[in-house]
Amino acid sequence: QVQLVESGGGLVQAGDSLRLSCLASGRTFSTNGMAWFRQAPGKEREFVSAIGWSAVDYADSVKGRFTISRDNNKNTVYLQMNSLLPEDTAVYYCAAARVTTRYSRDYSYWGQGTQVTVSA
């Protein structure tokens, strides 16, 4: 089993920045792919970004504004979010899988989520 705990969410204004963190524990050696998804009220969960050992992937809506990174020594994945927009408002979830994909069905482990609210 792998446990994931997100942190770093909050209420900010449009144009501000936030950095989300996801701390993994347990059988972390079984996970290659780490990803961030988000879900806004009334909408389906959507892919934000993913990182493997050497590859990264971003949704078009965040490309150029968000940066994903990982510190394997700390078992932590980060999502640096710059130039935040009101439409970035959502609960952000960290996920882990054996592979690196943008499809939520491929991820076996999920965190509890952290709220990001961006005011206009």
Structure description:
- It is a single chain.
- With 120 residues, this protein is mostly beta strands.
- The protein starts with a strand and ends with a strand.
- The model has no long low-confidence stretch (mean pLDDT 95).
- The protein contains no helices and eleven strands.
- Strands 2, 4, 5, 6, 9, 10 and 11 form a seven-stranded mixed beta sheet that branches. Strands 1-3-8-7 form a four-stranded antiparallel beta sheet, with no helix packed on it.
- Strand 4 and strand 5 form a beta hairpin.
- It is globular.
- Whole-number average pLDDT? 95
Ranges where pLDDT stays below 50 over 5 or more residues in a row are none
- SS-based structural class? mainly beta
Roughly what percent helix? under 10%
From the structure above, extract its key features:
120 residues, 7-stranded mixed sheet, 0% helix
